[in-house]
Amino acid sequence: MRTNGDINRRRFLVGASAASGGLALGFAVPLSRQAAAKADEAPTGEPQEINCWIVIAPDNTVTVRFAHAEMGQGAMTALAMLVAEELECDWPAIRIELVSPTDNYRRNRIWGDMSTGASRSVAASQTFLRKAGATARTMLITAAAARWGVVSSECVAQNSIITHRPSSRTLTFGAVAQDAAKIEPPLDVALKDVRDWKLVGTPQRRLDVPEKITGGTLYAIDVRLPDMLYAAVLQCPIFRGVVKSVDESSIAGFKGVRRVVRLADTVAVIADSWWQAKRAVDALHVEWDGRGNGNASSESIAEIVRQGLEAPPTQVGRTDGDPASVLANASRRFEADYTVPFLAHATMEPQTCTAHVTADRVDIWTATQDAMSTLATAAAAAGVKEDKVTVHPLLLGGGFGRRNVVQDFVRQAVLIAKEVPQPVKMLWSREQDIAHDIYRPFGMARLAASLDRDGMPEALTIRLTGPSFVASLVPQFGAAQIIDWSFVSGLTDELPYRFPHYRVDAAIRQTSVPLGAWRGINYTQNAFYRESFIDELAHGAGIDPYQYRRRLVLHSPRNLGVLDAAAQRAGWDRPPAPGIFRGIALNAACDSYCAQVVEISITDGQVRVHRVISALDCGYVVNPMSVEMQIQGGVIYAMTAALYGEITIKDGAAEQSNFDDYQMVKMADAPEVISVIVPSGDFWGGVGEPPVTPLAPALCNAIFAATGKRIRSLPIKNHDLRAI
User: Fold this and answer.
1) Which residues contact 711 (CB under 8 A, 6 or more apart)?
2) CA 693 to chain centre
3) In sequence order, what are the beta bridge partners of 56?
4) Which of 704, 671, 686, 323 is nearest to 531 (CA)?
5) Alpha carbon 472 to chain centroid distance?
6) Burial 188-206 (b: 16+ CB within 10 A, else e)
7) What's the burial of 224, exposed, middle or buried (CB within 10 Å: 0-12/13-18/19+)?
8) Which pLDDT score, from 0 to 100, does residue 7 have?
9) 134 within 8 A of 200, measured Cβ to Cβ
10) DSSP 3-state assignment of 690?
């Protein structure tokens, strides 16, 4: 990686400033006159970083500031490509700088909320970043034209060089950057026509990969500071329990131990090394108070949730027609219940945060998907104002939603570091990471449908029940008056199919288990329910499952496009090889459309996935190489969850704690993943999460084709897959 470390949609305001021959552009705050004054005062030849999105140095280096989290999804490269396309700069000269949330706070949040999730990094940023590039290009051309005494319309920019076409004179971006900074930025600029894109849409190697390969990338787990101490934690195994007592004498004499820190639900040991801290905290005698939650189990939670299948709904997501009456009088009625488990995120890098707390300053080094929440959490934990906190941004060793709004690891680190004058790196063990995750919710669904004379659905009802991760953060969303739209995601406006009579409602049932967003959020549960049931209806109607879906999406060209693309690439019209069985599923998520065909074999009850064909329409495609990588990663992540993923609860605690009992798909078992990109254009959809959502139902539908058995609960490992 080459690195130095909501926009108002009605009006595009630019703040520009330059120092030492550098040009910096920012958006949403009108700072141009102030910036021009700074440019007049700046010494020549010593470029300085001023503010906002783009910095151009005298040596022609272009620095693009990145205000999101890079966790392997390729957003850093994609957003830089969008800037470079409009700026007309030399792509190899691009550099990336991570925006500090501290700078964002001090500059009135000019970079927005800096949150990364729901596959929105590119879609939510593309407009103002493209305008950033176009505005910078306009200002550079204007500055060059003024120097030559010509009109701007006679000049053109390309590869970081401005050319006066009639005379063939040239100037580099760096040569006119300081002059450009003195120009009043235009309030509006024209963006390129899609047909004129030269960089966007071409495969480009990710900017962050080279340093990752050589080990040069600094992750939060790699932070080393002078005089730094280390902390290992032991959290109450019972969810929502607290510390009752701690016997510090139980680790008396342990080498390297500096201090035992007692928090409400956690005990930490600070030591000279992390292994010394971990050894001591594992030996520490702690008594816990479960606060009445010690009897919770998978069985008791399932019973609470199951009651929601029969109870009155707390929320109604959508109603079309009169499905209840149609179902009551149906001659061909189908009904099925489905269940999905709690799931952990299992990021490669466990939760970690280094904090240094002094009387008037807090410094934080961590991996975060929501940098502004990190800053706010650190300030609250330290008891200081937010302007006293400096967050040093780093790349993430995996996120998947774990490092977003819930910042428990930051809060812990700050509270621990307050106890000593030195900086402290707090690192969770793998056991603590899996056993104290914020899990994808457990859930159940009951689907009922009636078929018309042609075998097509006439009425369909879906009852969802289970805990809501949104309601766990904001309890009002569990009430009838405020609908948790994420709970019904993929089943309301994004529903691929059209039914004459349709209803989806929910009965939210909260538990003591902590919850959070998980890659694909509730789309993963809801796609499993719906696409498994659609397959059951197709079988009941005696219609091929691909052709059945095709009839249901004729009104939706984009859903039809990915469905046809996946089926055609899989050769659905031809029988698979002997012993190979196929399943298909379709889902729209995060403003994109994805269909998948999964090919499997089963030997002695063991399933092997041979090939996954994944067709994705995300509208415009910035970097096809990154899109393909995201499809591949999403498939493997979803396959792990479908085959093995399950957090079970006993005595109020998670039973799983490491990769021996929370299994991952291994390289030897990874299938061939064929990516079929179907870019229809005209919109900006997500990429990282949509390929996760149809995998589980497509895989389970393939298992039915192989065995005649329906998989209505996950994970698949809990089922006997020997054929009937």
Assistant:
1) 532, 700, 703, 704, 719
2) 13
3) 23, 62
4) 704
5) 19
6) ebeeeeeeebebbbeebeb
7) exposed
8) 30
9) no
10) helix
Is the previous residue joined to 715 through a cis bond, with omega within 30 degrees of 0?
yes
SS3 content of the chain, % helix, strand, coil (to 5): 35, 25, 40
**Given this model, what pLDDT does residue 2 score?**
38
For tokens 């027609």, name the residue: 321
Residues 6+ apart with CB under 8 A from 445: 337, 338, 462, 463, 464, 465, 525, 526, 529
Lookup: tokens for 600: 């499997």
Tokens coding 250: 């139980």
The helix/strand/coil state of 605 is: coil
pLDDT tens digits, one per residue of 161-196: 999 999 999 999 999 998 888 888 888 899 999 999
d(CA 91, CA 158): 11
Q: Alpha-carbon Rg of the chain, whole angstroms?
A: 28
**Closest by Cα among 75, 55, 66 to 15:** 55
Q: Which residues contact 434 (CB under 8 A, 6 or more apart)?
A: 344, 346, 647, 654, 656, 657, 658, 662
Which residues fall within 8 angstroms of residue 574, CB to CB, at 6 or more apart? none
* pLDDT tens digits, one per residue of 320-354: 999 999 999 999 999 999 999 999 999 999 999 99
Number of residues assigned to the chain: 724
Alpha-carbon torsion, ordered 700, 702, 705, 707, to 10 deg: -60
Taking CA atoms, 555 is separated from 534, 560, 597, in Å, by: 17, 8, 21
Considering the chain, what is the average pLDDT of its residues? 92
Coil, helix or strand at residue 145: helix
In the numeric block, which tokens belong to residue 560? 């039809």
40, 71 Cβ separation under 8 angstroms: no
Average pLDDT over residues 305-311: 97
User: E-strand spans in 412-533?
Assistant: 424-427, 443-451, 457-466, 501-508
Q: Give the Cβ contact number of residue 170 at 10 Å.
A: 12
Say which residues have a Cβ less than 8 Å from residue 161's Cβ, sequence separation at least 6: 170, 171, 172, 173
Count Cα atoms within 13 angstroms, Cβ side, for 401: 22
Q: Tens digit of pLDDT for each residue in 101-123?
A: 999 999 999 999 899 999 999 99
Residue pair 368/407 in contact by the 8 Å Cβ criterion: yes
**Short-list 136, 100, 123, 630, CA closest to 366:** 100
Tokens of 234: 């032991």
Q: How confident is the model at residue 29 (pLDDT cuts 50, 70, 90)?
A: very low
**Other CB atoms within 10 A of residue 288 CB:** 20
Amino acid letter, 185: P
Strand order in the sheet with 315-320: 315-320, 501-508, 457-466, 443-451, 333-340
Both tokens of 412, joined, read 């812990």
Q: What angle do CA 192, 175, 58 make, to 5 degrees?
A: 100
| Between 51 and 83, residue with greater pLDDT | 83
CA distance 724 to 722: 7
Tell me the pLDDT tens digit for each residue of 459-499. Answer: 999 999 999 999 998 887 866 668 899 999 999 999 999 99
**DSSP string covering 510-563, please?**
--SS-B---TTTTHHHHHHHHHHHHHHHHHHHT--HHHHHHHHTTT-HHHHHHH
Compute the Cα dihedral for 547, 552, 555, 556 and give only its sign. Answer: negative
Whether the CB-CB separation of 91 and 65 falls below 8 Å is answered with no
* Amino acid in the structure at residue 243: V
Sign of the torsion angle spanned by Cα atoms 705, 710, 716, 717:
negative
